[in-house]
Here is the input.
Amino acid sequence: METGDRLLTPGEVAALFRVDPKTVTRWAAAGRISSIRTPGGHRRFRESEVRALLEGDDALDDTSNGNGRVHPTNE
Here is the structure.
């Protein structure tokens, strides 16, 4: 982990991606985003990785496995 890299909660990550926190937990369980477990068993996410995913082309939606909703685009 980078020095000073902040750890985000599933709720904070969800707010950035505009999804439900349970979606973020599913992404982590599926290996789509890496997480760190706290001593209490809670998931935390590296802010630098989350920001990179937000800025990248990697889509983190649930549509690839048929479990998610498809949101129409305004074209």
